Known about the structure:
Blueprint: H1 3-22, H2 27-39, H3 48-60, E1 65-69, H4 75-81, E2 89-94, H5 97-109, E3 116-120, H6 123-126, E4 137-140, H7 147-156, E5 163-167, H8 183-196, E6 200-206, E7 214-220
Parallel strand pairs: 1-2, 1-4, 2-3, 4-5
Antiparallel strand pairs: 5-7, 6-7
Helix pairs in contact: 2-5, 3-4
Amino acid sequence: MDASQGNEEQRMQIRGKIAELYAPESAGLLNSIKLAEEAGLPNMRISPIHGKFLQVLVATINARTILELGALSGYSGIWLASALPSSGRLITLESNPLHVQVTRRAFSEAGLADRTEVREGKALDLLPQLEGQPFDFIFIDADKINYVEYLNWALKLSRPGSIIVADNCIPSGTMPRFPEPGSEETIEEYNRQVAANPNLVSLALPIDDSQLDGFCISVVRQ
């Protein structure tokens, strides 16, 4: 075994221990995975460590309202909604009817129906309906080609202190997993814009992934 293999095995062991201790998957999360597999959905969900990190951010600002762009099977939404108080609200926008069906069922069976809502349709068509109700936390994890437009909407739908998180946003690090035409350029532009925006404090952060994938985290200043 060469040094690089040994280092990778050590990193995997560390990630496994962190996930086991800090991010055990609840019955609702495991059920979401099961529902996704039964429906033939792609395995593109965030990792447990990613999910726990989102929970920590939500708890940090005592968020009560969350907007999620892109649902897949509801896995990330369960992590997010589970961090809300019973009076909190998560709104998820999803364009794929099958994903909507699976996510609604996953939310319900996780006991989160009282604080979650899944709206079906293209995000860019649905976002204007949300104007005037700023969100404490916004998670962007939809089609990468529209990330810059999603950022513009996130800025409209946020307030000072809100947190905006974009998944798969490490510069030059996402194309192997997400080869959407033009997505690499869009991700690069997203990073340039949040880094240069004086009203945001931002950082792209690789998390728990040897493929150099992770989150771009922005805090709205004013």
